[in-house]
Structures are given as structure tokens and as C-alpha cells.
Amino acid sequence: MSTITEQQEEKYLGRLTVILTIVRFLLLQALAFRGHNESSTSSNKGNFLQLLDWLKMRDEGAKNLFDIAPGNNLLTSPDIQKDTCEACAKQTTKAILDEIRDKKFSILVDESHDASIKKQMAVYVNDEGHVIERFLGVEHVSDTTSLTLKEALDAMLLSHGLSIHNIRGQGYDGASNMRVLFFCYGFLQLHHTLIVNTVNTSCKRHDQLAQEHHDNLVRERGKNQKTNLARPGNTHWGSHHKTLCPIQLMWKAVLEVLENICDDGPTSSTKIYAAGLLKQMKSFEFVLIIHLMIKLLGKTNDLSQCLEKKDQNIIRAVSLIAATLHKVNDFRQHGWEEGSFEGSWRAAIGSTPGSGTIDE
């Protein structure tokens, strides 16, 4: 039966402190821990081990702590790294919950995709009365219907001991079907997301889209601008104007890629799915709404970008709000600069069903 002396315990705590310092740094910077080759002869062992070696070269005390440590007590194994990460996450969550306690709070729920294109629900908790956002967690969901999000949100709040009755504000981005307001934009956003996901699913389709757009530029049928399709959820609560404009600029290329998927898709379900999206893109309703929303969001884009800046002057922000309200009201009363709503109507008529173009 082995006994641990007080000196051994102090050295263990010293090594643990060094490891926790490295873990906290990597977590704060959102850096990967592991490397492809972590052997002693590797020139790059990964961020965790490389940072530990760098620290030992510059701190003689840290070097001595690890040089004299037994091989099974270095605290550098992947399991130890995972355990320390989980411990940091629990302590961070505990600090957030201690800050909220029984106060009223608001939530922000955003949809995001990971590298495997799986849908995730990211939840922020806002302490009411303070502009403070605390990231509470990420929950994997099978879809972004209102029922699924409600169940995931209830489970997350319950696991952290938060009451849904204390919620005083809710905000949803990407998963906007939690609210029925602005149906026309919800329709556009949903189909926009489906189109981008279908076209950008594989590198081959993404490259094909870029080539089709390049060919259109050469034939002078597109604008000479570098563009890339983006999902509505990628705005990170910013303006959606920048996600809709690429669809308009690359309209012909997107249609051609969807047509190719209809003809040469890997499975019958993929072909049917692409055919449905192609039909929606050529519909009068979709084209009319995308014209309407690009014009409308273009008038609020300056205000959106202004409010995203942390060092924004409050007086300038208030003046921009007044100016934006005036522009939106003028847009409501008089429509397009050409004189009326007929501008978008004519553009939609000219873009459907078979012309393959979407005019300004």
C-alpha cells in the first residue's frame, strides 16, 4: 500500500496547475488540443503538448515538476485533457447559474451547423438589465421545428435548474419558425437555407457553382464580384442582406447546379429534392419575395452593421434608427425608386418561369 507524502502532493498540485493553465488558454482561444502525431520524435505534437514543451523551456520550475514525475502521473493523456475540459465547463456553467440565480432572464437561441452539417441549437442566457451574454450550451437537434426546439430548450433549462417561468424575452435566429410573424420572410429564409445546403453539400457541387458563376462572368451575364453562398444562420445575428444578395448575383449558376443535381444526383431522393427546390426558385412567389426582402433589408443594413459595433456612439445609433424608420416608412408609402411596387412585380414576371434570370 503506497502512501503520498506532503511533498509529492505539492508537486502533483503544481503539475495540475500548469495543465489547467494550458487547458484554459486553449479553451479561451477555441483551439484544438490534439495533434496528428504526438510521439516524442514528432516536430509538431499538437497545441496541448507543444504549449507544455514551450512552457517548460521558459519556466525552470515547470520543467523540474514534469521531469521528475512518474510516467503515469504526467497528466498529459487524452483522458486527462478531456476531464479537465469538462471540469472547466462545469465551473463556467456554475458561475453563470450563480450569477442568474432566481433573476428574470431572456434567451437567444441560434441555429448553427458543425463540420458534419448536423444542426445544433446554441443557447445564450441574458441577465436582464445588463448587456451581458453568457453562453450556456449547445444541443444537437434532429430538426428545427418549434416542437423540437421547445423540448430541447426545456430539457437544457431543467438540467441547469433554471425555470422557464423566469424567461422574460426570447430571440431566435435561423430557427425563426418559433414565431409566426413575418411569414413571407420565414418562407424565403427556409427555402434559402435548403438551397444553400443542397448546392454546398459537397466540394464538387461548390466547385461547380463557382465554375458556373465564372462562366457567366466571362459571358458578361453576371456581376464581376467574388461571391459565396451563405446560410441565414451564418450571419450570427447580423443582417441577412449579405446572405440574400449572393443568391441574386449567382441566380443563373444556382439554377444550373440544381438542374445538374436533378439529372445526375447520387440518389433518387436527392434528385427529387433538388427538383422541388428548382421549382420553388422559379416560382413567382419566391422571386417576388426575394426582391422585396433585398430592397427592404438593404434599407436597414446600415443600422444593423452599426448596432453590431461594440464601441458605437449612442447618439449616432439613435439618429440612424430615426433615419431607418423614415426610409422604411417611405418605402412602405412609395415603394421602389421607379415609383411604385410595379418594379418588383415586373422583375418577378421577367424571372419566371423559364428565363433563368433575376433582374435588379
TrEMBL record:
Regions that span the bilayer: 12-33
Record flagged with keyword Transmembrane: yes
Stretches assigned to the DUF4371 domain: 14-181
A Pfam family of this chain: DUF4371
Keywords, sorted A to Z: Membrane, Transmembrane, Transmembrane helix
Domain of life: Eukaryota
InterPro entries: AtLOH3-like, DUF4371
Protein's name in the database: DUF4371 domain-containing protein
Lineage, broadest ranks: Eukaryota, Viridiplantae, Streptophyta, Embryophyta, Tracheophyta
